[in-house]
Input
Amino acid sequence: MNEAIEPKDGQLNGLRKSFWYDAIGPAYIELAFRAAREADPHAKLTYNDYAVEYDSEEDAERRTLILALLRRLRERNIPLDAVGIQAHINAGSPYTVGKGLADYIESVRAIGLEVYLTEMDVYDDDLPDDVQRRDYVVAETYRQFLDVALANPAIKLILTWGVSDRRTWLNDPPRDHRKHLNRPQRSLPFDSGYRPVRAFFAIRGSFESRKI
Output
């Protein structure tokens, strides 16, 4: 189940206005999870969403609404195993990754669910052109984010949203928010030639230093 929450839509419980919501109503979420469990009793059923990483009012609101959704599902005995955090991170964000994310992961753990980082990458369009500087800041952004996330044993799985900068969705036009349309982003652990960059070693270092 992906991105069912959108506070800006102004619907009950912060649910996103969507085809499924319009066709079935809010019960579509429960219906989907029950159907998935019936189809595959061993699948890890996961609720996945974005914009929960930062200590900002907007992300805090989304975290609160997602947690409320998860608790409602639990109360109704809806099959659910994990929560996905997309983890599209902005290297130039004015907000920090810290207590909000840590508390969110712990709250998900307290509900009895695993946590997966499902689409991790780093948006670098707000950084200067200098490649070495960009690579350094991108790597530090990965490290800082993972230091917070990996401190909790609920994190069981990490996926990057692509492997090489050659295939990152962040370089696919059109991107209306892009500031540097002719400057490919360096957002993933491997460059366009599949060579490891600073981000790779930062991610590996975070794995190696995890104490859990």
Helices lie at 19-24, 28-39, 57-75, 99-111, 131-149, 198-209. The beta strands are 46-49, 82-85, 88-90, 114-123, 155-160. The mean pLDDT is 94. The CA atoms of residues 140 and 202 lie 7 Å apart.
